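Dissemination and training. As part of the outreach component of the grant, students in the summer workshop were shown how a complex can be specified as a set of sequence lines and then modelled as a single object. The example used during the hands-on session is reproduced here so that future cohorts can follow it. Participants entered these lines:
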Amino acid sequence: MKFLVCISNVPDTTTKITFTPDNKEFNKAGVQFVINPWDEYALTRAIELKEAQGAGTVTVLNVGEADTEPNIRKALAIGADDAIRVNAAPKDAYFVAQQIAAVAKEGAYDVILMGKESIDYNGFQVHGMVGEMLGIPTVAPAMKLDMSGSTATLEREIEGGKEIVEVSAPFVASCQQPMCEPRIPNMRGIMTARTKPLKVVEAVGEGARTEVAEFALPPKKQGVKLIPAESAGELIRLLRNEAKVI
Amino acid sequence: MSVLVVVECDNGEVKKSSLEVASYGSQVAQMLGTTATAVAVGEATEANLAKLGEQGISKVLYDAEPRLKDFVNGAYTKLIAGAAEKESSLVIVLANSNIGASVGSRLSVRLQASLATNVVELPKNNGGQFTVKRGAFSGKAFADVVLMGERKILAVKKNSIEALHNAGQVAQVERFSASLTDADFVDAPKQVVMQDQAGGVLLPEADLVVSGGRGMKGPENWHLIEDLAKALGAATACSKPVSDVDWRPHHEHVGQTGITVSPNLYIACGISGAIQHLAGVNSSKVIVVINKDPEAPFFKAADYGIVGDVFEVLPKLTQAIKELN
Ligand SMILES: Cc1cc2nc3c(=O)[nH]c(=O)nc-3n(C[C@H](O)[C@H](O)[C@H](O)COP(=O)(O)OP(=O)(O)OC[C@H]3O[C@@H](n4cnc5c(N)ncnc54)[C@H](O)[C@@H]3O)c2cc1C
Ligand SMILES: Cc1cc2nc3c(=O)[nH]c(=O)nc-3n(C[C@H](O)[C@H](O)[C@H](O)COP(=O)(O)OP(=O)(O)OC[C@H]3O[C@@H](n4cnc5c(N)ncnc54)[C@H](O)[C@@H]3O)c2cc1C
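and obtained this result:
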């Protein structure tokens, strides 16, 4: 099986979000970028499935500029065999999806794994777009993925429950916990990652269909109203009469 | 040219989040000088669909194909695309749910539309520029996004707008067939397992949420959370470490790497308020924090707080609610 794992390069989860003075762009200054946490599930599961099958390859793919390469190398250190970077700023989900679909088609990948969503832009859409572009099923978000031959059994989370779905390769799945325990790179992995192939290709297709006009931060809270623990019941009265939420 | 609204139904009822989506769609229709048509997915009854008139919907298209009861991405996409063609819709509105966003992303490719998910406000249409506000950076920011395509698809986040209730208005329910074939059901579920939720309130749809963290000390104390949730009619949730050690199931884990909730009320019990946790809850209308440490970061994000021991405070709150009801 040929696995393609798509990773996005996102601000670390502890990042305090700020924007450039015109509020048009995210302020990258001093920000640590990491592999999108959901994508770590996709990567680790692909490696586990390859190991279980005893054959196959895991390729990581990122659509991004050269500054994403440290995280691509990290994915190689975790255990991917090779990597592809589409050399372009990820303008929007549609743009990114076209790049992924083109790479997937060219390389005839059997299983395309992504994360549930990218924690920067929170689109939850690239996987559906790629599935549609390739004319294959997308299972999103998947909590479990097992394979037997070219048939996959997945658990798809739906509001209030889950569906057990069976699809044949090729397919797209977007991964989330508790699919696996994401691996971290070990010393040997880090050493071998340096010499694993990382191919850079240019972008294809049309431009973006959306554009950010302006970013804004959420309004600040008024400040907390403290109620003494002894008169906890008073809180209930405030929630009913003042906040009017119960 | 009508605005097309996708309403999700379950056990015959229109989901509450879809009543909001319908209200959103009818307001967009009004803005654009047209009407709003709904297309129903899931298990619906014609009587309940007709009631969507109260949310400003004029017409509801309904395909009674029994296999549409469960979510099937391929079939739902074809059904909605068919309805959009029939209505020549340039704007399609769905819920920002796992179902809505999954279908929305496929549709955006099929219909060559611009897509915005996680939408939190009604759009602005200034000088032909169609802009919507959406949540980004896991609740830490918002982005005004311009949709450049002629066709637009919007997935609206729960609890972002009030549902309309124009009593007595009735929508016309029309049978609609998307001529679905077996090929549209290749990703049909083999089995659907619904969670057995205490009190029957599902977290993603809940208006009120009671959530517990490591400060609850262990699963044996969760009856305190459940009792309060039951008295309020709330759903229960937890922090990541709590589900990591299996005190609670994974579907209750909220935060940046769990689910995002935006209820009217979020009560955090023994949760410190780490930035990754806040990301999943900070669009809640009112946040209450109960923590014995007055320095806990969560108090900075709270509207009401009690500095105290959860084991003493929670029974008092449950008691106070029971007295009130
Ligand atoms: C400040 C800032 C502004 C941005 N502005 C926009 C914008 O205006 N519009 C916009 O749509 N995007 C924007 N992006 C880009 C965004 O980061 C994404 O790369 C891309 O748009 C997809 O985001 P999504 O949230 O829709 O992805 P999702 O659909 O949430 O991602 C799902 C999965 O797709 C895969 N994936 C996503 N992005 C990539 C990628 N680049 N390379 C490889 N795999 C990927 C991952 O597996 C991911 O888990 C912006 C990013 C930043 C940091
Ligand atoms: C990449 C990444 C992603 C993450 N994603 C998430 C996520 O999605 N969601 C999430 O929740 N976390 C997430 N985390 C973890 C997060 O950083 C915190 O570790 C976690 O939220 C802490 O959980 P907690 O508040 O339950 O526990 P703690 O931080 O241990 O806090 C327990 C609190 O309980 C209080 N307490 C103790 N005893 C009592 C008592 N008797 N009465 C009252 N109060 C008491 C303490 O004062 C303390 O404030 C993530 C971390 C990383 C690195």
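Chain A has a mean pLDDT of 96. Students were then asked to discuss how this feature might be tested experimentally.
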